[in-house]
Write a structure and sequence with these properties.
Blueprint lengths: L12 H19 L4 H8 L6 H4 L1 H24 L1 H12 L2 H7 L3 H30 L4 H30 L7 H16 L5 H8 L8 H11 L1 H22 L1 H7 L4 H29 L2 H20 L3 H29 L5 H30 L1 H22 L5 H6 L1
Helix pairs in contact: 1-7, 1-8, 1-9, 4-5, 4-7, 4-17, 5-7, 5-9, 6-7, 6-9, 7-8, 7-10, 7-17, 8-14, 8-16, 11-12, 11-17, 12-16, 12-17, 12-18, 13-14, 14-16, 15-16, 15-18, 16-17, 17-18
Length: about 400
């Protein structure tokens, strides 16, 4: 680093803005799959059961969850930027594999790489933004980060839906992913600067008092706020795994076109993405706990409505509600981790939280797939709705308010 290290969004505006753009490219890599891959499984590769069709989400979730954990540790050991660049290098072959995969096994290999890519790049951009923002505007920083990522998922989702409708499921939709990977690698290599010194500056001379094992146990089970956040993150991505893997299949079974399916998926993601611009900042003012509780309950209600509906307008309304509930939760969970974890071990705590959160994709693939095969897709949706509402009640009963201003307000 050259010059004095300063914390805060205004003091680090150029680098923060660049990292927001990089995270949008990370989200775009995920968006290339949201509509096309579930339909590719059924229509191109002939996978007839929901459990088989969702294997790509199961694989992605398990690999990304594990990579998140190591991303935090590697970022503390080697710095943030090398981990970010490594994630983009691993992302380069993904679109090519999806374009030309001769069998479903090749799609699974692509999703192993996607899990590593997303775990390294998204985790690292989160950690770097927390480093730069400092404690005062952490919620706003996470709102901007997650908004950029999921708005890019939304835009890419609708774009790939229309490309698939016009040119077929392959290869056209995945050309976007190839462009994202090349641009992300270039920006991360040339323009992004290391932020580890900002975390060291905030921590002062105090070393981490915990081993990685102790941090895992604290974040997962022992510390009330951190463990509450971890289980809520897992359940949140459990229901997103269902929305990703089963809803396009359900909509197609009701006769919706690829363009309309892409629109519905993008509507949910766009509300989720845009909403975080407000909810992240609101959590700095109102506190974290109430937004997490009401966000999980809102998601549970929305999923129940999706399971009961059978028309495009009702699905659209319910998906808006689902996106709003997810927006209340997503940046707030990350901000709460930043509130509780000391800067000397914060990157590893973020890695552990994201391990549990993205493990929710794997849990969602299993729960939704098995339930759908046994009892039908509506039953799977209602099951996940109940789990989501229960998670919100766990937060209400177990978590304390982590933000000082929010705690004073309550």
């Amino acid at each position: 680093m050259t010059g004095p290290v300063r914390l805060g969004l205004r003091a680090n505006l150029a680098q923060f803005t660049l990292l927001v753009a990089v995270n949008a490219l990370v989200g775009g890599m995920l968006g290339q799959e949201r509509v096309v891959l579930p339909l590719l499984a059924e229509q191109t590769f002939g996978l007839t059961t929901a459990t088989s069709a969702l294997t790509f989400i199961l694989t992605f979730g398990l690999v990304k969850a594990a990579t998140n954990f190591f991303a935090g540790t590697l970022s503390d050991r080697y710095g943030r930027k090398p981990v970010l660049v490594a994630g983009w290098l691993i992302g380069l072959p993904i679109p090519l594999l999806l374009m030309w995969a001769p069998g479903w096994g090749w799609v699974i290999i692509a999703n192993v790489l996607l899990g590593v890519n997303q775990g390294l790049t998204w985790s690292t951009t989160v950690i770097m933004k927390i480093d730069l923002a400092g404690p005062e505007r952490r919620g706003l920083a996470m709102g901007l980060n997650e908004a950029a990522g999921y708005l890019a998922v939304a835009v890419t989702t609708v774009a790939t839906g229309y490309l698939a409708e016009r040119y077929g499921l392959r290869p056209a939709p995945f050309l976007l992913g190839a462009a994202y990977a090349a641009l992300g690698l270039g920006l991360s290599t040339v323009a992004v600067k290391e932020t580890h010194d900002h975390a060291r500056h905030e921590a002062g001379s105090e070393p981490s008092p915990h081993t990685t094992r102790q941090i895992f146990l604290l974040t997962s089970f022992k510390e009330r706020a951190l463990s509450s956040v971890s289980q809520a993150g897992l359940v949140n991505n459990l229901n997103d795994g269902l929305a990703w893997g089963l809803l396009p299949i359900m909509f197609a079974a009701h006769g919706l076109s690829l363009g309309r399916i892409g629109f519905l998926s993008a509507l949910y993601l766009a509300v989720w993405g845009l909403g975080q611009l407000a909810t992240g900042a609101l959590s700095d003012r109102w506190g974290r706990k109430r937004l997490i509780v009401w966000g999980m309950l809102t998601q549970g209600l929305a999923l129940a409505l999706i399971g009961a509906a059978s028309s495009f307008p009702l699905w659209a309304a319910a998906l808006v509600l689902l996106g709003a509930g997810t927006a209340m939760v997503y940046p707030t969970l990350l901000a709460a981790i930043g509130d509780v974890a000391h800067p000397s071990w914060r990157a590893r705590a973020v890695g552990v939280y994201r391990l549990w959160r993205d493990g929710g994709f794997a849990a969602g693939a299993l729960v939704a797939g098995v339930t759908a095969d046994l009892f039908g897709i509506p039953a799977a949706i209602w099951t996940v709705a109940a789990l989501t509402a229960a998670s919100g009640l766990v937060v209400a009963l177990r978590m304390y308010e982590t933000h000082v201003r929010g705690a004073a307000a309550t």
